[in-house]
Amino acid sequence: MNHDLQVLFDPAQIATRVRQMGAEIQGWYDPGEAIMVVGVLKGSFVFMADLVRALDGPINCEFLGVSSYVGTHSSGAVQITQDLRADIADKHVLIVEDIVDTGLTLDYLRRTLMARNPASLRVVALLDKPSRRKIEVEVDLVGFTIEDLFVVGFGLDLDQRYRNLPYVAVLQQG
Ligand code: XMP
Ligand code: MG
Q: What is the layout of strands, in order, in the sheet containing 4-9?
């Protein structure tokens, strides 16, 4: 099945915003302080690849797998499908998310990672759909705030498809 895709954020808009975000994030940390960048798989991998190149301090890249979505609907139950290999105790952890929707994933991740005693824990997301929140959760920095639309591209998928689009598009299901 093919879908109607409408570009919401093009590659140039994303690149500009990611550079700004990198500069802002860098300001949160002391010069030379190492950041443990934790990408939430799979959706964040494209954003994270660009974001880390907009940071100039020392970083570690780690990944954590979660799943809560089937098709275009959240099942509500968050599952860790691949845990971190690294110990985050006393590290400055930066969670990188593709999109915050109901907030359930992020709330779960925040609580789970805080229990491991990082030196700090901050969250950055490329996209935010605040109108969909089911739980209040803190996001330190958002790339773009969007309406209640299902989006794909730039890492985001519909049943694993479209992650490789170099832009964010709204999906019209037909
Ligand atoms: P929650 O509801 O827990 O969801 O905040 C976060 C995760 O849900 C996925 N998600 C989407 N994926 N297009 C997607 O491709 C969307 O519009 C969308 N909204 C939520 C995503 O994996 C995110 O990490
Ligand atoms: Mg997804």
A: 4-9, 168-172, 151-152
Residue type, 80: I
* Selected catalytic residue, list 101, 107, 128, 140: 101
From first to last of its 174 residues, the chain has per-residue pLDDT tens of 778 999 999 999 999 999 999 999 999 999 999 999 999 999 999 999 999 999 999 999 999 999 876 556 666 688 889 999 999 999 999 999 999 999 999 999 999 999 999 999 999 999 999 999 999 999 999 999 999 999 999 999 999 999 999 999 998 865
- Among 101, 111, 124, 128, residue to substitute to test ligand 1 (most atoms within 8 Å of Cβ): 101
Q: 66, 41 in Cβ contact below 8 A?
A: yes
| Residue bearing the CA closest to ligand 1, atom 2 | 102
pTM attached to this predicted model: 0.94
The CATH architecture of the domain made up of 11-148 is: 3-Layer(aba) Sandwich (3.40)
C-alpha of residue 41 to centroid of ligand 2, in Å: 8
* Test site for ligand 1: of 156, 165, 167, most ligand atoms within 8 A of the Cβ: 156
Rama region for 43: left / alpha / beta (φ>0; ψ in -120 to 50; rest) = alpha
Active-site residue 87, yes or no? no
